[in-house]
Structure to design on (369 residues):
């Protein structure tokens, strides 16, 4: 359609190059006139983006008796590949390098870590970075003179500070419904549907817009008798999908007689899913998180489909509201108007968690109770 597009794989087990049948690497590869692609490569990232961090971690490992090659491998810390992918996203967006960026992500668990990373990293950086910085100043004047172990340099601390600031910018990009949307892919099978429901809930928890669902690998109705039972099972699960995800836009694609590889096959799949519709247009602008006033209460509304109230825990600190759903926790920084108020009541309405705030009167003991 004439959009200058970047296709970026963030899955450690890359498959985009196999799908395109074109070799890809950590460098941008031109596929056609308006299409570039890349597969985030952590070793390449270490040599280009993470020099200061790699230098410190490598020197630390060497000081502990580890050989040079092993220490370099160990310099790949958890989360670095996630940050690299998100920083590419920020760079492309800031430089207006592309009309569209398509991120082909890993399975559900890894994708949740990728897209919730800006929120989680900000929570830790706000609470731990200043403490770490002050501790290191003290350490340089005391233990740093007595132990044979490298302490982080000022350059490294500045890098970490810059990382936190960039993550905040990435979060703003990811949570803007007019810029970013997530489209989940599901097969008509019980386990996959349940996993997709959980993913939908957690994305909403972190303020990310899921605006469409693709049901993949459907068998056509004219499949032969061998697939009769499969077709009946598929019809049952399609009803479950429609009931569960409505009014979300649902697109479908059929199981093909041969493997989907090569640009020609991918174009056929694109036509099957979108037809003449522009795939880049947001299908929904429904905000997962909203703040409004209702019946004299200030209300925080969080979209949490498929969740029972017993599965949600709420905690309030001085200026933050912690929302815990299963193993995932989100820290919502409260606006000034709510920071001095206490949660009064929480309830579910139309798949949204409504948390109501009011001014508390009385002493601290009354407020705590």
């Amino acid at each position: 359609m004439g959009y200058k597009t970047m296709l970026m794989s963030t899955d450690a087990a890359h498959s985009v190059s196999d799908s395109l049948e074109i070799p890809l690497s950590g460098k941008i590869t031109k596929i056609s006139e308006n299409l570039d692609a890349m597969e985030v490569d952590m070793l390449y990232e270490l040599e280009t983006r993470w020099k200061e961090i790699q230098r410190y971690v490598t020197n630390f490992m060497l000081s502990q008796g580890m050989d040079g090659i092993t220490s370099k491998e160990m310099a790949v810390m958890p989360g670095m590949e996630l940050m690299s992918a998100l920083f590419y996203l920020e760079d492309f967006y800031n430089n207006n390098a592309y009309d569209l960026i398509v991120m082909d992500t890993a399975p559900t668990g890894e994708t949740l870590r990728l897209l919730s990373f800006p929120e989680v990293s900000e929570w830790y950086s706000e609470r731990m970075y200043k403490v770490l910085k002050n501790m290191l100043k003290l350490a340089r004047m005391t233990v740093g003179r007595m132990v044979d172990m490298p302490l982080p340099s000022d350059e490294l601390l500045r890098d970490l500070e810059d990382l936190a600031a960039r993550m905040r910018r990435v979060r703003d990009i990811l949570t803007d419904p007019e810029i970013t949307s997530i489209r989940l892919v599901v097969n008509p099978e019980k386990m996959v549907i349940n996993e997709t429901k959980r993913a939908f809930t957690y994305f909403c928890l972190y303020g990310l817009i899921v605006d469409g669902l693709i049901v993949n690998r459907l068998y056509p109705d004219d499949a032969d008798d061998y697939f009769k039972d499969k077709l009946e099972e598929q019809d049952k699960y399609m009803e479950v999908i429609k009931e569960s995800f409505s009014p979300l836009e649902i697109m479908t694609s059929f199981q093909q007689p041969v493997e989907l590889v090569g640009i020609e096959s991918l174009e056929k799949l694109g036509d099957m899913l979108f037809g003449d519709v522009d795939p880049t247009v947001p299908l929904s602008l429904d905000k997962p998180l909203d703040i409004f006033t209702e019946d004299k209460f200030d209300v925080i509304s969080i979209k949490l489909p498929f969740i029972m109230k017993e599965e949600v825990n709420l905690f309030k600190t001085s200026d933050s509201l912690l929302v815990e759903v299963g193993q995932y926790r989100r820290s919502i920084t409260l606006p000034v108007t709510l920071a001095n108020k206490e949660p009064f009541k929480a309830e579910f309405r139309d798949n949204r968690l409504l948390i109501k705030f009011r001014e508390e009167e009385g002493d601290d003991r009354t407020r705590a109770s």
Observations:
- Residues 5-174 form a domain with the Rossmann fold fold (CATH 3.40.50.300).
- The mean pLDDT is 81.
- The chain has three domains: 5-174, 182-274, 289-368.
- DSSP finds twelve helices and 14 strands in the chain.
